[in-house]
Design a protein that fits this description.
With about 170 residues, the chain is α+β, with helices and mostly antiparallel strands. The longest helix is centred in the N-terminal third of the chain and has 19 residues. It has one domain. The model has no long low-confidence stretch (mean pLDDT about 85). Keywords: Signal.
Length: about 170
């Protein structure tokens, strides 16, 4: 009887951890995001938030120089009325045509970096969506506190790349 109770207790512990296991960092990042979420609705042509827009596009080619896909990207650098940077949004869409029996695939990513009142990077939001043959296969959203240590993941490296691009401009 004790073994069954132990198994039940262990199972309940696993379930509660899985359901309510958000780390303190995730909760703090969610709270921090609430302070910045209004910036996501800024229009590129807003008079209150002047925005510099950089756009581009290109093609993917295979070894035989045949077009197999396309890329489109944009970077928005948004400032407030005082000229302080408040947000940088980098979005990229990679579309791969059906090729060598591989289905059509699209990878869409968005990185938003929010800045504090001292124009220091404070929080980053990473969103990635993968579509295969027009069906959403995976979606991922991650928040990064840019004033804390972060794991060296693929997503965080993408955020660091955007930060480095900003420093160059």
């Amino acid at each position: 009887m004790k073994i069954n109770n132990m198994k039940l207790l262990f199972l309940l512990l696993l379930i509660s951890t899985a359901l309510f296991g958000q780390s303190n960092n995730e909760i703090q990042n969610q709270r921090k995001l609430k302070n910045y979420i209004h910036l996501d609705s800024i229009d590129v042509y807003s008079k209150d938030y002047p925005t510099k827009l950089i756009e581009g596009s290109g093609l993917f080619k295979n070894k035989k120089n045949k077009d197999i896909g396309s890329i489109g990207y944009s970077t928005e650098i948004t400032k407030d009325k005082n000229g302080k940077i408040v947000r940088v949004l980098k979005s990229e869409s990679d579309h791969y045509d059906e090729y060598n029996k591989k289905p059509q695939k699209s990878v869409i990513s968005k990185i938003t970096i929010y800045f504090d009142e001292f124009q220091q990077p404070d929080l980053a939001k990473y969103i990635s969506k993968i579509f295969i043959s027009s069906s959403l296969v995976t979606t991922k959203t991650k928040l990064f506190d840019l004033k804390a240590d972060n794991e060296d993941t693929y997503e965080f490296r993408q955020v660091k790349d955007v930060l480095n691009e900003i420093k160059e401009k």
